[in-house]
Design brief:
Length: about 500
């Protein structure tokens, strides 16, 4: 699974500027293919062939393209629009014609589904999968095991506020268990939807978890009930929505994410939690056919959500690399890279989505000792804040489990990863929004940064005791490559 699935990336968000989020750059106009305006009588059996399989495509039009025009262009290229987002001029299209991409134009259409099918291999166990100590007893108070909440001063915050029901955090993930006793009061079924076809489906079956516990684990960190049983979330007084963007094979294709962002934007959510990166590539390069369409579509969706007041929070990734330093192996497909590959961007046009976009808060991970987790990616200007994600090598002072305890279907389990760090930041952002209901996405991001606890670069980052530094932290105490502006702070969120 992506950040949930393969500890490989989730990656890096450009640091929020002190003056606010910078606006996204305008997209370049792309010429409309002349064949798409063909006489409708020519669009028939002789023009379109249907041998299958039917594939999904992401189609990006010039901004401002009307729905009728988009439909005509797609129909002329032998496709059918499954959904169209006129606000951002992006469509999800299905076609059984193998020539659809060529007819529509590679500068317009791309099928991540086709790329994923051609490269997928069985997923390997990664850093942010459960460690295998699941327990089902929900009557016990497990909060003493939540060292992560101590690091961000959650209990101190709850003495002041647990958050407002007016605040909704969209959990864009693998689905949230609607029956878990710690989540049933927080989860809003009316705001939940499944996006794993690229089209939002509000049916419970579409947004409930099937093959992954990841989304339920993330949701518990954000908003598990403060009821003296089980675990307690960062913001137990807010609502959450299950927005399922991970399919049963563990993939998050761009059309899923676009659907999720647009659903959140049009349904009044305040924050979205994104513990993943978008398939089928670790880094999406803006100068490559297909990939630049993915970049543009996701950028538009994130920017639209920000304009509607939705703060996007995303993981810096589990690749253990400096995301500000170009390398040579970024084009290894995410689902085929060997266990020891540490992908890096080829150049500064290759970014991990969604975290490396503007209008996104990127979160790195620390263990119980407040030191960057060995797997966590980093980079000066790439990380905005840090939060507890766990590290098996950093054991809490009481000798407990080094990973993060949270809810899973039918119980509780520990997991490590930047996936686990992100919901701490999302929960703190939700507390800030509860205190400042008129704040927009940019202001929420700035307050999240400003309230963070300073974490300076470690004097020594030799995790294995070999005498060699495992990574290099650059910057200064208040802002550096490992921790950004510092550790998110729940108490500061409700008292500043």
């Amino acid at each position: 699974m992506p950040l949930l699935r393969r500890a490989r990336a989730a990656a890096v968000g450009v640091a929020l500027l002190a003056t606010g989020f910078a606006p996204g750059s305008a997209s370049a106009s792309i010429a409309v293919p002349t064949y798409a305006a063909a006489d409708p009588d020519e669009v028939g059996a002789s023009h379109c062939i249907q041998p299958g399989p039917t594939l999904r495509y992401l189609v990006v039009f010039d901004e401002g393209t009307s729905s009728p025009l988009a439909d005509a262009l797609v129909t002329g290229a032998c496709g059918t629009i499954a959904t169209y987002h006129p606000q951002i001029s992006v469509a999800v299209v299905t076609s059984a014609d193998p020539g659809f991409g060529t007819k529509m134009g590679p500068e317009r259409a791309y099928s991540a589904q086709a790329d994923g099918r051609s490269r997928r291999t069985p997923a390997k166990k990664r850093e942010d999968e459960p460690v295998g100590s699941r327990t089902a007893d929900g009557t016990l108070d497990r909060t003493a095991e939540q060292w992560d909440m101590e690091l961000i001063h959650a209990a101190e915050a709850h003495a002041v506020s647990t958050g407002s029901r007016d605040v909704v955090v969209g959990v864009l993930d693998s689905g949230v268990d609607p029956t878990h006793p710690d989540l049933v009061d927080a989860l809003d079924p009316e705001l939940s939807a499944g996006c794993t076809t690229g089209v939002a489906d509000p049916a419970e079956a579409a947004w409930s978890p099937t093959t992954s516990v990841h989304g339920t684990h993330v949701a518990g960190t954000i908003a598990a009930a403060d009821d003296g049983r089980g675990t307690t979330g960062v913001a137990p007084g807010v609502r959450i929505a299950s927005v399922k963007v991970v399919d049963d094979d563990g993939f998050i294709y761009p059309e899923y994410a676009v659907c999720g962002f647009m659903w959140a934007a049009t349904h009044g959510m305040t924050v979205t939690n994104n513990s993943y990166y978008i398939d089928p590539w670790v880094f999406t390069c803006q100068n490559q056919d297909g990939q630049k369409l993915v970049y543009e579509a996701v950028r538009r969706a994130v920017d639209y959500a920000a304009a509607r007041g939705v703060l996007t929070v995303a993981a810096a990734g589990n690749a253990a690399v400096d995301l500000t330093k170009p390398g040579r192996d970024a084009q290894s497909p995410t689902n085929a890279a060997p266990e020891d590959v540490k992908p890096r961007p080829v150049d500064n046009t290759c970014l991990v989505l969604p975290a490396q976009l503007r209008n996104v808060v990127a979160v790195s991970s620390v263990g119980a000792n407040r030191v960057k987790a060995g797997y966590s990616s980093y980079g000066l200007g790439a990380v905005d804040v840090t939060a507890p994600g766990g590290d098996r090598r950093q054991v809490p002072a009481d000798g407990g489990q080094g990973c993060v305890l949270s809810t899973v279907p039918n119980g509780y389990d520990y997991s490590c990863g930047t996936s686990m760090a992100v919901p701490h930041a999302s929960g703190v952002a939700a507390l800030i929004a509860s205190q400042h209901p008129s704040a927009g996405a940019g202001e929420l991001g700035r307050m999240l940064n400003a309230g963070a606890q300073t974490v300076p670069c470690p004097a020594d980052y030799d995790l294995n005791g070999t005498g060699v530094q495992d990574a290099y932290c650059t910057g200064y105490s208040e802002y550096n490559g490992f921790y950004g502006h510092g550790m998110v702070d729940a108490e500061a969120a409700v008292t500043r």
